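PROTEIN DESIGN WORKSHEET
SECTION A - STRUCTURE
LENGTH: 648
TOKENS:
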């Protein structure tokens, strides 16, 4: 029977004898931390299970390494170790509890496998197609025939281990610069023997791997093969070569999974993992081109977060399957909401790279919009209130809204007070910025959840501590936010100086020549937005670097834009005064006057501690959430709002 909302997206598909309940697969996501033997912990299993519970047809666990010589870092699943079997079985069972198929990615880092290398510490080397030196400085030795055969056997043995653990399919990583692509790519494979040169020779190794997997697993275990449809790097292959590779794989694997790029090129990283400055579905055209030439089902991905777009992809024949990674952690219930007619309640991934940053630096799972992520074990059971209480939330930013929703969902009577005429707090500045629409959409989703949860919302109401105390609430949650930092310089009160609320309208209330005072993350994003509108934009930043407070992946994406823009950036520059002509600044070379019609104040925010502290003792219990504690990101505001409400 067809789903009445998304008939193509919700339709089942049978792959290699295994039926997947719909066309939305969970793309591979690896584990930022595991136990000392690189086996998955209960926390890791809980993370992947959380992705499974909301309706995905499958969930893939990323970076199962088939050979110790192929490890690129120290937190990859050791598929060469039979002692991984218990945790793998637990993971497969967790997926199956939710009628979700379990998929394991098989990978080998090849020349980038610098976590351990091979041999003694002083003689370590990695293995790859050629003799060379890796970007990390490790010696890479060209694989011998025997080593290639051994690696193929390792892929087969790893697939068998996954099969024994109860996984339903394996995903062979043949893209993004991993070992198999190093052999497939004419720009990376410089061999002149039977493993290099012609397309036939370059594809010999991946075909041998597929053959060994079939041999080890009995020939009927489904194989998904991930490849880069194009490398998008200097000297790399394009879609024509990608199609040729796919034609060689056609009929030999069960899914051709078309991704893009090479990880080692930072400018391409934001194509493989699309940034907010790139259109959604940016890599779908690669899969669509491949699909014209093969009979094997084709999977696509690339910043997808909209079920309408996904439905069109399947319905129009661009691909047979869509895969999501970041979207599946931002809102694990994405499929269920889409298929039940509740797409307006979907939290869309805004591609802010919060998850990537925390994965690489803090070694934790994390999401700016989903406070459960990284704490799945603690949230596996409901948190019923001991006694329903009267709760007052002061402040209607994302932290206050999340607190109000969570408290109401737990059975409390909640009223939210917001001094402005609309909800959203600082996120209101995002509403007209094209690359921030998914972030502003989060505000609208929270608004709808407030209504559904039965929260009473009072706008244009600046509640004082005395008024709050008179309400006789059991609990007050103060989420009064932060205030802009205003530099104490002459002329700062000029009409020429405007705050971020100038962006609340379209077009923004700014002149043609704009100087942005503050070159942090917020100021830099504003510069990109205004440059896109054709404004003459200059950034002034006291520090020696712009956007120093941004995640490095996001900054890389901004830098790609900045290099092509007309934005002027003055770092190591201190504002001295606002004049009739513009902003007078002090630099290492002396004073400089930057002409401006408008000066946009983006010098940062400071917690509104005075207001927050005024609410102390206005109720038996008073909690604080969001920027009134410390000015930060939406991540901290939403997370604190959620967990404060669990304390009620």
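SECTION B - SEQUENCE
RESIDUE ASSIGNMENT:
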């Amino acid at each position: 029977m067809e789903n009445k909302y998304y008939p193509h997206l919700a339709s089942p598909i049978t792959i290699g004898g295994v039926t997947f309940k719909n066309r939305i697969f969970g793309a591979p996501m690896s584990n930022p931390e595991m136990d000392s033997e690189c086996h998955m912990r209960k926390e890791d299993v809980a993370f992947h299970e959380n992705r499974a519970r909301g309706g995905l047809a499958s969930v893939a666990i990323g970076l199962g390494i088939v050979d110790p010589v192929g490890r690129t870092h120290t937190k990859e699943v050791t598929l060469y170790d039979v002692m991984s079997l218990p945790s793998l079985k637990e993971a497969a069972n967790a997926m199956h509890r939710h009628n979700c198929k379990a998929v394991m990615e098989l990978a080998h880092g090849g020349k980038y496998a610098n976590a351990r290398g091979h041999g003694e510490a002083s003689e370590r080397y990695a293995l790859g197609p050629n003799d060379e030196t890796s970007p990390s400085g490790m010696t890479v030795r060209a694989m011998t025939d025997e080593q290639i055969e051994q690696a193929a056997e390792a892929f087969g043995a790893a697939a068998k281990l996954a099969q024994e653990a109860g996984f339903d399919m394996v995903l062979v990583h043949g893209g993004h610069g991993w070992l198999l692509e190093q052999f497939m790519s004419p720009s990376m494979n410089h061999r002149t023997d039977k493993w290099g040169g012609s397309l036939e020779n370059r594809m010999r190794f991946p075909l041998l791997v597929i053959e060994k997997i079939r041999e080890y697993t009995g020939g009927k275990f489904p194989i998904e093969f991930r490849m880069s449809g194009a490398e998008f790097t200097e000297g790399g292959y394009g879609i024509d070569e990608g199609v040729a590779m796919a034609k060689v794989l056609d009929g030999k694997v069960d899914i051709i999974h078309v991704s893009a790029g090479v990880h080692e090129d930072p400018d391409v990283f934001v194509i493989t993992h699309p940034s907010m400055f790139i259109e959604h579905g940016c890599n779908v055209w690669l899969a669509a081109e491949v699909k014209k030439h093969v009979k094997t089902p084709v999977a696509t991905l690339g910043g997808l977060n909209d079920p309408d777009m996904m439905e069109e992809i399947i319905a129009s024949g661009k691909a047979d399957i869509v895969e999501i990674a970041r979207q599946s952690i931002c809102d694990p219930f994405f499929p269920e909401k889409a298929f039940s007619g509740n797409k307006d309640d979907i939290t869309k991934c805004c591609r802010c790279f919060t998850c990537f940053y925390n994965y690489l630096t803090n070694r934790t799972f994390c999401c700016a919009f989903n406070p459960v992520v990284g704490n799945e074990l603690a949230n596996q059971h409901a948190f019923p209130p001991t006694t329903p209480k009267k709760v007052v939330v002061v402040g209607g930013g994302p932290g206050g809204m999340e607190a109000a929703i969570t408290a109401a969902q737990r059975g409390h009577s909640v009223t939210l007070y917001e001094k402005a005429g609309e909800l959203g707090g600082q996120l209101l500045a995002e509403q007209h910025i094209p690359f921030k629409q998914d972030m502003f959409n989060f505000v609208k989703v929270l608004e709808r959840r407030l209504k559904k949860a039965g929260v009473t919302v009072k706008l244009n109401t600046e509640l004082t501590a005395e008024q709050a105390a008179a309400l006789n609430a059991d609990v007050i949650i103060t989420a009064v936010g932060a205030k802009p930092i205003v530099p104490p310089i002459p002329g700062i009160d000029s009409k020429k100086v405007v705050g971020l609320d100038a962006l609340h309208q379209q077009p923004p209330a700014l002149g043609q020549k704009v100087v942005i005072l503050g070159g942090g993350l917020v100021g830099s994003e504003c510069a990109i937005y205004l440059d896109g509108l054709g404004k003459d934009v200059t950034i002034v930043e006291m520090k020696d670097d712009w956007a120093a407070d941004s995640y490095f992946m996001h900054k890389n994406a901004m830098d790609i834009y900045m290099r092509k823009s007309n934005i002027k950036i003055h770092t190591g520059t201190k504002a001295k005064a606002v004049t009739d002509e513009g902003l007078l600044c002090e630099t290492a070379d002396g004073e400089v006057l930057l002409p401006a019609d408008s000066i946009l104040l983006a010098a940062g925010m400071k917690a509104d501690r005075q207001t927050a502290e005024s609410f102390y003792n206005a109720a038996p219990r008073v909690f604080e959430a969001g920027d009134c504690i410390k000015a930060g990101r939406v991540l901290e505001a939403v997370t604190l709002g959620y967990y404060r409400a669990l304390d009620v």
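SECTION C - NOTES
The two ends are 44 Å apart (CA to CA).
The mean pLDDT is 94.
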